[in-house]
UniProtKB/TrEMBL annotation:
The chain crosses the membrane at residues 32-49, 61-80, 147-173, 206-226, 238-265, 271-291, 303-336. Belongs to the autoinducer-2 exporter (AI-2E) (TC 2.A.86) family. The keyword Acetylation does not apply. Keywords: Cell membrane, Membrane, Transmembrane, Transmembrane helix, Transport. GO terms for cellular component: plasma membrane. It comes from Fluviibacter phosphoraccumulans. It comes from the Bacteria. It is found in: Cell membrane. Coiled coil: none annotated. It is a multi-pass membrane protein. The keyword Cell membrane applies. This is AI-2E family transporter.
């Protein structure tokens, strides 16, 4: 016999159970989502590897985990170490500058059109008034120290999250078919065939977005690395990795190759600096306009604005790994909303007929 009170009790118990599970998994939500996205995006290579190894899933999962460690964790760890080292050097430089006074301004700064004379006048005022100069340096040094320390801490946290994500990925590879079967059954119980269709759409969307974003990032990182090596920029591998990571941010790679061009100019290598600017504008930054549409044309297309919002929002919400999580979640929401609207329109059209 149907009892409204019993039904409400069951719904309440299930809701509390779901909330409890989410509360327990809350500290691991970022690496868990990252692991699932990576596994879905690399499932085809894993499946091929399983067949080659005679259906030994655990061994195939271990090999894929090792590959993820080599391709993702080690470069991220290296880049994080370099960023932390650079942050320490910058803080010490600011400290030395604070103790020794502001000194003379760079010559190029005074030659800037329109503002050069105003900068010179203000700088002379700071040189003549020791109190004003010290106050300005103090205002710059303290926030810069906090910002750099925060960046270094975020990098370390990101490396730890990626390490945990790779650990989770091993089990996701090994038991992925069981997890997929459970998810499809749950979706079918909730909303019938449209539920299983949504699961398929989710998988294709994740694959398309990851291929589009990471493929474009890898292409830009490779082109940047080649340009840095040709121009003789030191730490070309590190700068290529930085280009790969910042390619998901608007104008991110521009900051890298412009910085390299300025370093070349500062070393009196004007010709190579001009080459770096041309290579960056015509090569590195143009890759995004060519590679991304080709990669995601037949999978999942996401407007650049949503990619940017997803990247920044993902970083704020999930930390470093939000670079991957944010755009993927937005693309998934857009794709599933479109599928739901198309399904509703199909039903309405059928009812009218």
């Amino acid at each position: 016999m149907y009892s409204p009170g019993l039904q409400i009790s069951r719904i309440t118990i299930v809701a509390l159970l779901i909330l409890g599970v989410l509360w327990v998994l809350r500290p691991f939500l970022s690496p868990l989502l990252t692991a699932l996205i990576i596994v879905v995006a690399t499932w085809l290579p894993y499946s091929w590897l399983v067949r080659q190894l005679g259906n030994r899933k655990a061994l195939a999962a271990a090999i894929m985990t090792l590959l993820l460690t080599v391709l993702i964790l080690i470069p991220t760890f290296f880049l994080g170490g370099q960023v932390t080292k650079a942050a320490t050097i910058l803080v010490e430089t600011l400290k030395d500058r604070f103790q020794g006074g502001i000194g003379e301004p760079p010559a190029w700064l005074l030659t800037l059109p329109l503002v050069g004379e105003h900068i010179k006048a203000y700088w002379d005022h700071l040189l003549n008034d020791a109190g004003s100069g010290a106050e300005l340096l103090q205002r710059i040094y303290d926030p810069a120290k906090r910002l750099i320390t925060s960046i270094a801490s975020g990098v370390v946290n990101g490396v730890l999250q990626i390490l945990l994500a790779i650990f989770i990925a091993f089990f996701a590879y090994r038991d992925g078919q069981q997890w997929s079967m459970w998810l499809r059954n749950a979706a079918r119980r909730l909303s019938g065939d449209i539920g299983t269709h949504m699961v398929d759409v989710a998988g294709k969307t994740i694959l398309g977005v990851m291929v589009g974003i990471l493929g474009t990032a890898a292409a830009q990182g490779l082109v940047a690395y080649i340009g840095f090596k040709i121009a003789g920029v030191p730490n070309a591998g590190l700068l290529g990795a930085a280009t790969f990571l910042t390619s998901m941010l608007p104008a991110g790679p521009v900051l890298i190759w412009l910085g390299a061009a300025y370093w070349l100019y500062d070393q009196s290598l004007t010709g190579w600096a001009i080459f770096m600017v041309i290579w960056g504008a015509a090569g590195i930054s143009s890759v995004d306009n060519v590679v991304r549409p080709v990669l995601i044309a037949h999978t999942a297309s996401l407007p650049f604005l949503l990619i940017a919002l997803g990247t920044f929002g993902g970083i704020i919400a999930f930390g470093f790994v939000g670079i991957f999580i944010g755009p993927t979640l937005l693309a998934l929401a857009v794709a599933m909303t479109n599928q739901w609207l198309n399904h509703r329109n199909t039903i309405t059209h059928s009812e009218r007929l």
